Input
Amino acid sequence: MQARQQIPLIFLFLLSMTLVAGLAACNTISGVGKDLEAAGSGIEEAAEEEKRY
Output
């Protein structure tokens, strides 16, 4: 393969790997958000139980 043909292939490969990594990161961030939401709900429930009027 000539050097001029390799440059677009390398660019396409790097672009596709970047997109895959980006999609994986979105899924991970979504999971972290759900975990934080669940933890916040647990703390809120515990605080409600400990309230003394």
Remarks:
- The first helix runs from residue 3 to 50.
